[in-house]
Structures are given as C-alpha cells and as structure tokens.
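Quick one: structure for this chain?
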Amino acid sequence: MSDPAWMIYGANGYTGKLAAEKAASLGKKPVLAGRREEAIRPLAERLGLPWRAFSLDSPQEALEGLKGVSLVLHCAGPFSATSKPMVDACLKAGAHYLDITGEIDVFETIHARTEEAKKAKCVLMPGVGFDVVPSDCLAASVAKALPGATELEIAIAGFGSASPGTTKTAVEGIADGGKVRKNGKIVSVPPGNKTREALFPDGEKRFCVSMPWGDVSTAYYSTGVPNITVYFAMPRSVSIGMKLSRPFLPLFGLKPVQNFLKDQVEKRVKGPSETERKRGKVYLWARAADGKGKSVEGTLEVPEGYTFTVDAALACAERVLAGEVPGGAWTPSKAFGADFVTRLPGTKMAVRN
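Got it. Here's what it folds into:
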C-alpha cells in the first residue's frame, strides 16, 4: 500500500497507534496524522513513517491535510464529532474514507451520502474494525442461508476491556438508551429491553441483553432484513441494574455529567494490555428467521477485538486501494462478501441450516 499514498488519522490514539505499528511491521508506509504535532511526530519518527498534523475544525485545513492522499483510515473518535468533517474533506479531495466507528447515528449519516460518494468516485466504508466486520459478515451469512428472512438477532460475548476512545463513545450514548430496527426503521427502546440465551462457538450458553450496537444500522444495508436486535452477553445482575437505572438516564446527557465521566475515562481507562490482546477471543452468534417457522443460526470466533480491528482495517484499506470497490457507501460484507471475515487471521465461522 505504499503507492498511492494513504493515511491513518488519529494515529496517536489507542487503536490508531496499533494500526500504525502493524502497518509499519508489514512494510507499509501510511502517512500518520492527527491534531497535534507533539503527539504524532515522535510516533512517526520511531516507525520511520511520514506524518502530518492538522485539525478537522477548519474545512480548508482538513482539505489541505489530505493533499495527495488517496485513502484515509479514520481512527480519531468520538466519531459523532469527527466523522462528518473528515468525510466532507475526503469527498472534496477525492479520497476514500474508512473508519472504525460503532456509532449507529454515524453509520446512518454516512450511508445517506452514498450518491455523493458515487459522484465523487469515493468509497465510504464506516466500521472496518471489530465494529462491524465480524458481526456484519456473520449476519450476512445467516441471512444469505435463509432468503426471505424477516428477523435477525446477533449476540456478542467476550469483548473484554475497552480503549479510552471506545469508552468515551459509550459514555456519550448512555442517555440515548437502547435501539433496535423494527419494520425497517431504527427505533429507541429502553436499555436492555430484551433478553435471550445464545449458544456461542466455545460451547457455552450465555445470558444476553439487547444493546445499541452498530449492526442495528449496518446489517440492514447488508441483508435487507427489516427487524434487527443486537445483544451482549452479561451477568443477569447487570441486566437488572440497567432496568433500575432507566429513570436516571436523562441525567447522563447533561454536559457537566458528560464532562465528569469523560475526565474519569482519561484518568482511569488504558485499554487492554498486549497480553490481553494476544490471548483474547471474542465469540459471536446470529440467527435469521422468516416468521414462518424456519431459521438459520451461525457462530463466529475471532481474535481479541482490537487485534481483530487492526487486521480487518488494514485488509479493508488494502482492498479499497486496489480498486476492488466502486464509489458509494458500503458495509464490509457488501464490499467484500459475507465470507470476508474468514480470510482474516484466527477466525472460525459456522452456519447451520
């Protein structure tokens, strides 16, 4: 991927740094970029990579920062604040845009710009990391096995500890409660409004609680299935706590509360250690049903979430740069096929009719 030029923006963040280090180890030469020279330059010099420092606050500065760049892997969240200015700059610069978001509203906003992207001959592909490559490919696989499916359920277990950026994004979404897709539309629901048990690929049946995960948006574009719920495995006690907290959710949306919580994240959250990244596994389960008594289930095992994100994001960038995807807004499975995840290291998928 040394020619044409491509960029990792937010390379000084937790995930961006991992992506930069992995790219360098593979002999790739991305431009490392971010807001602050003092954060980007030492990393770039250590890895022997080119660098740029520019803000997304000014459209002209962002456009100048992308000069000569054919693709941006955007790793600087929260994406609710950073995705739009970066997408705007990419469309003007004629650069492809990939990111590692998991935010439902960001997915919806970007997919609404597909006609703009086609005209600009740019690929817009949000969610090229753990959010949402494995769940997207598994969802597409079970839906493909059951044409006419009307309901899709996805469950995730074993994600482990989160990075500061991921945690801040979660903090931003607390007040919004839960979200599901119902009859093709994304609707708000109380947090943890649905529960179920799912049998994961490690052979363990786990209690799961519905959560507002990115596939509520993306799985619809990948499969066309109109009813989608995503679950996370968690202790039953956490589910009870979620229900008890519902009356207090609006408080979490207040700016002073948000600022306090994000400050605590900065002080306390470091992300998983190298040992955790090497040893971790994440398990996924999905079920497609047609409402007439037929259903198909599938399972997927992948490496620890941030390890997987780096591998998936770099693979997506390489294939987009190779010209495999025409302009427009894409999900990973739509761009590369439902089996794309199985071509990444350490993955095992099974679909059962």
